Amino acid sequence: MSVEPMNVLTVLITGGTSGIGRATAQLYARRGAQVVVTGRDEARGQEVAAETGGRFIRADLASSQDVRRLAAEAGAVDVLVNNAGYWELNATAETSEEGFDAMVAVNFRAPFFLTAALAPRMAERGRGSIVNVSTMVAARGAAGMAAYGASKAALEALTRSWAAEFGPAGVRVNAVALGPSRTEVTAGMGDMLDTLAAASPLGRPNEPEEVARVIAYLAGDDARPVTGTVLAVDAGRVATL
Ligand SMILES: NC(=O)c1ccc[n+]([C@@H]2O[C@H](COP(=O)([O-])OP(=O)(O)OC[C@H]3O[C@@H](n4cnc5c(N)ncnc54)[C@H](OP(=O)(O)O)[C@@H]3O)[C@@H](O)[C@H]2O)c1
Fold first, then answer.
1. Residues 6+ positions from 63 with CB-CB distance below 8 Å
2. Closest Cα to atom 19 of ligand 1
3. Which candidate, 64, 102, 144, 148, has a CA 20 to 30 Å from the CA of 15?
4. Closest atom of ligand 1 relative to the 193 alpha carbon
5. pLDDT tens digits in sequence order for the chain, 241 residues long
6. Nearest CA to ligand 1 atom 20
7. Distance of alpha carbon 171 from alpha carbon 159, whole angstroms
8. 149 C-beta closer than 6 A to ligand 1
């Protein structure tokens, strides 16, 4: 009797070299997926590849050329997690054009063209799932975060449009809007992170592993009827503002 080979999920995680992306790569690897991570940092990327048994593709998502190369090298994927993010916290008048362009490029343009390359391949196979990583600042105003919040609000708008565009072909697209989360980038905030998180009903920041589990839930079959949604993962902060 021949035994059908198990269908191994291939998952591409941008920003998989750190924080939430790295935790997501580790979770998927523990669940038996073939993981592909991308980022700019070669050393951290190779570390994650080694710990997940996966593949690292170095790419700077601020570069259109790198985004095209990444899409080509990644090949067909079942799950795409558009997680990489860049932010500069500045008053509007003090935001440089370079900083603005970098936030738009990494948070909005790169997910757009990566999805443009990969989602049609999912659609051809009649299945696939995309999760975009946003922030609670996309929906609620915050001084010093105008450009960052707007770039992520654009990503949330893409989430809804892509759900409409790719849903009929069996591809789901959702987003998570994160509150304060304990990662490498927020480590420098020290106690400020806990103080910020204390304002939410649950009174605590997200841990990367917890966010990874929500991402995997949205991407997976347990969320089969869910597409075009932005799920708040913020300890109840935005619901109670
Ligand atoms: N932590 C929070 O409190 C929080 C709150 C709301 C939303 N978020 C969102 O959550 C996501 C993950 O953030 P995190 O907290 O895990 O941050 P992190 O630990 O700093 O990780 C950010 C990741 O993005 C990658 N990245 C940044 N710029 C890039 C570029 N130009 N090209 C390629 N990769 C780039 C980094 O890779 P390299 O360093 O290797 O380039 C890194 O892997 C982001 O989208 C962020 O906006 C985080």
1. none
2. 19
3. 144
4. 3
5. 445 455 899 999 999 999 999 999 999 999 999 999 999 999 999 999 999 999 999 999 999 999 999 999 999 999 999 999 999 999 999 999 999 999 999 999 999 999 999 999 999 999 999 999 999 999 999 999 999 999 999 999 999 999 999 999 999 999 999 999 999 989 888 899 999 999 999 999 999 999 999 999 999 999 999 999 999 999 999 999 8
6. 185
7. 12
8. no
pTM: 0.97
Q: Is the CB of 184 under 6 A from ligand 1?
A: yes
All structural domains of the chain: 10-240 (3.40.50.720)
Instruction: List alpha helices for the chain, DSSP H.
Output: 19-30, 42-52, 64-74, 97-104, 110-125, 146-166, 184-187, 191-197, 208-219
148 is catalytic: yes
Ligand 1 binding pocket includes 200 (Cβ within 6 Å): no
- Please identify, by atom number, the ligand 1 atom nearest to the C-alpha of residue 136: 6
Ligand 1 pocket check for 175: Cβ under 6 Å? no
Ligand 1 pocket member 178 (CB < 6 A)? yes
| CA 3 to ligand 1 center in whole angstroms | 41
How close are the terminal C-alpha atoms of the chain, in Å?
Answer: 60
CA of 15 to the centre of ligand 1 (A): 6
Of 30, 41, 124, nearest to 77 by C-alpha is 124
